[in-house]
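Report of the visiting student (M.T.), summer placement. My assignment was to run the structure pipeline on a short list of targets and document each run. The first record concerns Glutamyl-Q tRNA(Asp) synthetase.
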Amino acid sequence: MSTYRGRFAPSPTGPLHDGSLVAALASWLDARAHGGQWLVRIEDVDGPRCPPGTAEIILGQLSALGLHADEAPVWQSRRGDRYQAALDRLIAPGHAYGCACTRAEIAAAAGPRAKHGELVYPGTCRHGTQGRPVRAWRFRVDGRVDWHDRRLGAQTQDLETEVGDFVLKRADGLWAYQLAVVVDDAEQGITDVVRGEDLADNTPRQIALQRALHLPTPRYLHTPLVLAADGHKLSKQNGAAAIDVGDPPARLREASVALGLVPPSGSAGDVLAAAIAQWRSARP
Ligand code: GLU
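After the run finished, the structure tokens were exported:
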């Protein structure tokens, strides 16, 4: 029996759009092609950015398209105690430390922005806050992470120079995506992460956290992004429209084409069955 367990982990900041449907379909196809299980996790840690009811809309869109999960969805907003326990496990051996810096202080002391757009934390509080109250908690990075992506091949990132000590718990008390995703992937027994390529440069941070927490590292596959007409990533932030699930076969065909598949005409079931077979030979 396959031990494959995959997941789709949307942040419910808006309904599914063409880009997030591609990520959902890719993770579903990879799970089905491997005879595995597919889970849905609602990544609503950043509550203020998640309008009420949006997660339910996403779950409805997935089920209208025939993408059914094998277990009930997990909601990150209900799992703060697990993230706190992981943070405590990181603090004790010194992998995490309290940081007293304000945004303005970091901006004044930091060098140029990292590739992923955030400031590289200058390490001010690495050796203590000098009596200032702790605002956020950070992970102490240590060197380079080499990793493998099933599509992109060998990857490497120097966490110290390219990312810096990153936030695990924010000054406003919210949990950071990096910590929540690592805790949940491990607790849900996820063996394979399939998601959009925009998240590839987060992966070394997640692998560093897995190692510090003595958790297994899943296999990773980052899928090509669907670009808007202006060449930018299609996202809720740049106004990508919610998909219309009134015509499931059409939506599934479009998403399949974005993944390089050649979908047949016919019902949603026909499109999905053909896509599983094609995916199996393209991404064994
Ligand atoms: N919640 C993240 C997003 O919607 C995806 C996280 C993941 O797949 O690891 O961008």
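The chain has a mean pLDDT of 93. The pocket of glutamic acid is lined by residues 9-11, 43, 181, 195, 199 (CB under 6 Å). I thank the supervising group for their guidance throughout the placement.
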